[in-house]
Design goal:
The protein has about 120 residues and is of the alpha+beta class. Helix content is about 40%, strand content about 15%. The structure holds zinc ion (2 copies).
């Protein structure tokens, strides 16, 4: 098939219809590829900084940052924030448990002394 140089190849047309959603290549840490089924786009991560992409979690578009390009699946700020918030909550729960058990221990000590 001879392509007319004035018409765009079909894959470019498909590509223009979506924002790339990136995942890191398992073979090369510096390469991120788009997961869209009709898209074979991939790029070196140093060229992806400050580019628009789809969040791997909420599927909203966001601007890729250097920090996000260290993750296997780059996620938007609010998704990575909520991840952190979840972690903080878990730590708080553990702290609560420790505090509760030490309080009980104190009570037990006091009880033992009184008896
Ligand atoms: Zn794509
Ligand atoms: Zn998100």
């Amino acid at each position: 098939m001879i392509l007319n140089p004035t018409t765009k190849p079909p894959e470019v047309k498909v590509n223009s219809g979506h924002i790339h959603e990136y995942v890191r290549s398992s073979k090369n840490k510096d390469i991120y590829r788009c997961v869209h089924p009709d898209c074979s786009h991939y790029h070196n991560r140093e060229y992806l900084e400050n580019k628009r992409a789809l969040c791997g979690k909420c599927k909203e578009s966001f601007i890729l940052t250097k920090a996000q390009l260290k993750n296997k699946v780059p996620a938007c700020l609010s998704c990575s924030k909520s991840n952190k918030a979840k972690k903080v909550k878990r730590i708080e729960q553990v702290l609560d448990q420790i505090l509760n058990s030490s309080q009980k221990y104190d009570e037990k000590l006091r009880w033992d002394k009184n008896v």
